[in-house]
Amino acid sequence: MKDLVFRGALALALLFLACDVLPTDEFDPTGTQFNVNSNINVVSITGNPDLSPNGPFTLGMTMVSKTSSVETDVLPAGLLLKRRVNNTQHMLLLKSHAIAAGTTSSVVLLGAFCCNKLKASPDAGDTFDIGPVTDNSDLQQIVGIVKHKDISNSSNMWMVQRAVYMVTDSTGLTQAYIDSINALPADTTD
Question: 111 lies in a domain?
Fold first, then answer.
């Protein structure tokens, strides 16, 4: 009986390792730094409890125009948002987000994906900075596939979240997983 339990535990451990071998290095954002329109003052980017159709986690970006008129910009798909505290995950935008800053402070919701499986998901007290647009070729591949896909339903979002983790915290995407993401329905709001 002990031998059977041991073999079962060993089989589960091997299955886990075969599915998600964790790298020795933690994912860190790299790429070309993105700069928001210089007429927009980004006051803060924090975890937000509201829901977004663009990602399983939502960040609230508080901003205000530095001019007497509305200032706009587009946060590109592939933009990484860098955590300020080491126990929180870096975040990734897989959909472009249009932003508009008026003369009074306003909050835009950003749907995002987590990049560090072993760190905490963003909470209301967590803060982030605008980082680079990713130069990671596997993340760029996910961005290219997902930016025109409908990921608004929960199961699609979590499938894509797993793909991000496969790149940032594992051995990379498999062709079967790429095929699954490619099979997601087209985004009709594009």
Answer: yes
pLDDT of amino acid 145: 96
Residue length of the chain: 190
SS3 146: helix
Query: Which three-class secondary structure state does DSSP give residue 112?
Result: strand
In a domain, 10, yes or no: no
- What pTM did the predictor assign? 0.85
What is the number of structural domains in the chain? 1
- The Cα–Cα gap between 82 and 88 comes to 9
Q: Which residues of 118-146 are buried (b: 16+ CB within 10 A; e: fewer)?
A: ebeebeeebbbebbebbebebbbbbbebb
140 near 78, Cβ under 8 Å?
Answer: yes
User: What separation in angstroms does the CA of 120 have from each of 65, 72, 115, 166?
Assistant: 32, 31, 10, 17
Residue stretches of the chain with pLDDT short of 50: 4-24
Residues of the domain holding 140: 31-182
